[in-house]
Amino acid sequence: DYKVKFIKTDVRYLPQIQAAVDFTVKEFGKVDILVNNAAIWKMNKFFDLAEETWDNTIDVGLKGTVFFTQAVAKQMAKQGKGGKIVNVASVAGLSMESSYGLLTQYVAAKSGVVGISQSLARELKPLRININCVLPGGMVSPGAIHSAPTPELREITNSHPAVLVTDPDDVARVVFMMATEISS
What we know:
Radius of gyration: 17 Å
Strand order of the largest sheet: 1-2-3
Largest sheet: 3 strands, parallel
Structural class: mainly alpha
Distance between the termini: 25 Å
Number of strands: 3
């Protein structure tokens, strides 16, 4: 039997992040696990990249990950029992899997998530806070299904070979495993 509760949180805003951590402590008495999975993406040509698109993608994917990790790690340190943090990046953070690009800001955000995961895993290890990073490939998700590329982008994507698609359930199983003692 699981007790599930939620609080709507926009990870771009630090006060909302702290409110989510405080809510969790109030409802459950502690925080043991954090999964940073928030991300947005938009396919666009580099020459058409707007500052607002860049800012939103970086703020959700990178800033949200950094400051949610900070808030939760502070709480975990206060509790003195360590914890598990799983950051969801993307294979695009290591090697752009798409043969046509069009995701500059997303690649930047996910590359940053990979790098901060590596750095924080070392820094927070003495506190028994275990950080791992999962890097799935492209997948059929609600965001992918409901995105509507322009005719110009559709032409580019149709003229390049398709990439393999990851099953979201497979990713969820890996994230679950990383939140257990197996990942220690």
